[in-house]
Amino acid sequence: MPVMKIRFFLITLILLAMMVGVGRARSQSDREDRSADLATPVEPPPPDIDENRLFTELLAHNEMRNAALLGYTEQRTYEVTDTTGKVRAQQSGQMEYRAPDKKTFVTTSESGSGVVRHLALNPLIATEIEVASGKQRHDSSISPANYTFELIGEQQVGPYHCFLVRAIPKRPDKYLFEGKVWIDSEDFAVVRIAGHPAKKLSFWIERADFVREYQKIDGFWFSKKDETFVKVRLYGHKVLTIEHHNYTVTGARKIEESTQTVERDQAQD
Predict the structure, then answer these.
(1) Per-domain boundaries in the chain
(2) Is the separation of the CB atoms in 18 and 120 below 8 Å?
(3) Burial letters for 185-222: b for 16+ Cβ neighbours within 10 Å, e otherwise?
(4) Rounded to whole angstroms, what are the CA distances from 257 to 30, 60, 160, 265?
(5) Which pLDDT score is estimated for 37?
(6) End-to-end distance of the chain based on CA atoms, in angstroms?
(7) How many CB atoms lie within 10 A of CB 247?
(8) Residue 55 contacts residue 149 (beta carbons within 8 Å)
(9) How far apart are alpha carbons 124 and 16 in whole angstroms?
């Protein structure tokens, strides 16, 4: 998986705020909260793991996976709804990644409000492509420079056994988040993130929460589902869902080769 950035995901919240004038009807069933907690029990952490080791392992394994992944394709479906379940806009297509920094998206179908697609979905896709290319250099990675980890325990997330940590941002930055992170105990990969922006996004957004889930495919970790819940002042809730499916890894190095690549790059630095 390319170096994980949370920035483009949080930009979703800002873009959804731009749709204030699109949905005039107030939701009849505003939700004041959406729990990000899982039903499975949280167990105490093992004695041989702590926050420093988690960060070290997470960064090292991410770097090796990033160096090994040369390309992939996936099918995406973007959908904006209100809390009644009414679909305001939908857009589907194929996202292609080619190492080290190129992403392209081809739309295959679209429906619903053209205004919503123009104001929110198209800019969101364009932002992800720009982030991948390095044109937007705001550092929002999950790293010690941006976050402090507090180890909570261990928890099962579907088929993955995870370490559960609380991520605390080191500064009030709208491109950082505050919340929980589930990290696979074997691969040291992020399996799930749930939280909210570390800084208020705008006057119009009263509340913003997101959940991002990952899945393991052919040894790599890819996005599975993204959900963003925004309460917009005067106009109720908006929900953005991004479904990721039909992944195909189009190019990859062996992990041993990627480790050598990382070590060589570090030596050159």
Answers:
(1) 7-23+49-246+255-262
(2) yes
(3) bebbbbbbbbbbbbeebeebbebbbbbbbbbbeeebbb
(4) 51, 14, 26, 12
(5) 77
(6) 22
(7) 18
(8) yes
(9) 10
31-43 confidence digits (pLDDT tens): 434 446 799 999 9
Distance between CA atoms of 145 and 20, rounded to whole angstroms? 34
Look up residue 63 and give its two tokens: 């770097």
HSE-up (13 A, CA, CB side) for residue 86: 12
Instruction: Mark 147-170 as b/e (b = at least 16 C-beta within 10 Å).
Output: bebebbebbebeebebbbbbbebe
Say whether pLDDT at 2 is over 50: no
Q: Which residue reads 């705020």 in tokens?
A: 17
Q: Which residue has the higher pLDDT, 55 or 175?
A: 55
